[in-house]
Each structure stands twice: as structure tokens, then as C-alpha cells.
Glucosamine-6-phosphate isomerase
Amino acid sequence: MRLTIRDNADQVAAHVADYLVARIRAFDPTPACPFVLGLPTGSSPLGVYRNLVAKFQAGEITFRNVVTFNMDEYVGLPRDHPESYHSFMWTNLFQHIDIPPAQVNILDGNADNLELECQKYEAKIQAVGGIELFLGGIGPDGHIAFNEPGSSLSSRTRAKTLAYDTILANSRFFENDINKVPKLALTVGVGTVMDAREVVIIITGAHKALALAKCIEEGVNHMWTVSAIQNHPLSMIVCDEDATLELHVKTVKYFKSIEMVHEQLIGKDRMSLGGSITSMKGLDKTKLVSGELSPIK
Ligand SMILES: N[C@@H]1[C@@H](O)[C@H](O)[C@@H](COP(=O)(O)O)O[C@@H]1O
């Protein structure tokens, strides 16, 4: 796992957007072999989405051959409610880019049969060959998607009762009235996220500092579901300085030094994969953008 630390949330957003664009371009998706991207909602990815829209408008990236799967959706909230995750995604990303609507997948929290809806979602992910990269955020209690503390680390897409803390945290989107926050949601499971070939998690703000420390300095624990990332073969957390407040100084210095060496190896320009790595024969150069020097398969 890599921990990439930036000064503030804006720099985190810029870094993650650059990274996603580099990964999609290196993948070179086609209609037959699209880039399958898992996406979150919440305030954490907002800056990333703004950057992606700007990059699309500047002609740096197209989403024509990208297929998306969102992490979660409230149950019972009308799809056109301003706080539904459908509305969030169209308002903040999809309506501004060239992704064909048929390639957007978001759980239907108003489906007649919620269990069937979840099963169909998992099947659809399988049918497109699995998720290439799952982008996520976390709650202050370390939950990923709506996998609240105590969720099985091998859980799949399902309906989940929201924890009181999450209801309270999300009441800011519902006029600070907890009675207006849905209490049930559909969510991908921890196992669904961890099955992605790559996982990238955004963690910003001092209120998430404890969760980051629990996630990377302690063991894998279902009470901090994002800690399952420790078992993932290809993952990265991008955080700001505020989120590192509970980490040991040694941990911060360690991950910063790793990044420095990596930058020296590949150069600042992630798309320029020549130069210093020409001697690394047998390594898949496209994987260098993700920081892993994987052997060519
Ligand atoms: N289900 C979502 C999560 O996917 C998200 O990561 C979390 C944090 O949101 P924010 O980024 O606004 O802190 O909120 C909700 O609980």
C-alpha cells in the first residue's frame, strides 16, 4: 500500500485526478475493453470531480470507453431528490463529461426487490470483467461506502442499516435534521471494493486522522472497515497533512521517503515512462504510474 501525502485537500484532489487520468490513458480503453471505474460520493471526491471535468473540457481525457459503478445509494430517497447519490453524481460529474449514460451504474434504492437489485449489481460488475480501479472516501469512523463498523470484511453488495454516527454526519446534507436522513442504504461490500484490481482512497481533514491511523498503523479490523485495504495487492491512500495528525512521525516520514524514491525513478511526469526506467527490463511500464513495478504478465 502507498500513502501519498499532500499539503491540503485541493492538492489531494489534483493529485488523484491526475492519477486517474494517467491510469485511464495508460489502459487505453476501447468499447470492447472499457476502463471500469468504481466511484464514491460525499465531499471527499468533489475536488477530484471538478478536476476531471476541467481535464475533460481541456481535451486531456475522454470517458467514452469508461464504465462506472457507484458505491452506494440511499434506500427510499426519490432518485431526483437533490441529496440522492444519483443526483450527486449527475450534478457533479456525469452531466459535464462525455460518458454515455448507459455506461453509468448506480444502485437503485427504490427497487421493488432490494436484495435482487444488489445481486444484479454484483453480476453486472462480473459481466464487465470486474472493476479496474475503485476510488473511495471514508467516514470518520473508517467506514468505506456504507460498510459501517462491524461489517464483514468479505461482505458483498447489500442493504445496510446506517450507524447513528453516519446519520448524524450526513444530516448536514438534510438541513441538519437527522429525521430527514434515510436510515437504510444499498452499498457495495468491503469484499466488492477489495476485488477491484486497484483501490485508491481519499482521506482529508483532521476529523479523519484517527481513522487513517487505525487503518494503516494497526491491524485489519472490522471496526475500521477501510483497514481491509492492508490485504489488497495494489492500493493507495491519498491524504492531506491534517489527516496525518494521529500518525507516528516515523510513519509519515517513511511514506514520504518512499514517494520521493518512486518519483526519482519514474520522473515527475507520470506519462513519460522512459529515461530512468529503461534498465528495468521485464517490468510492465504502464503499471509504473500506479507505483507498482509489476513483472510483465
Ligand atoms: N457512504 C458515504 C461514504 O462513501 C463516504 O466516504 C462518507 C464520507 O463522506 P465525506 O467525504 O463527505 O466525508 O460518507 C458516506 O457515508
Summary: The first strand starts at residue 2 and ends at 6.
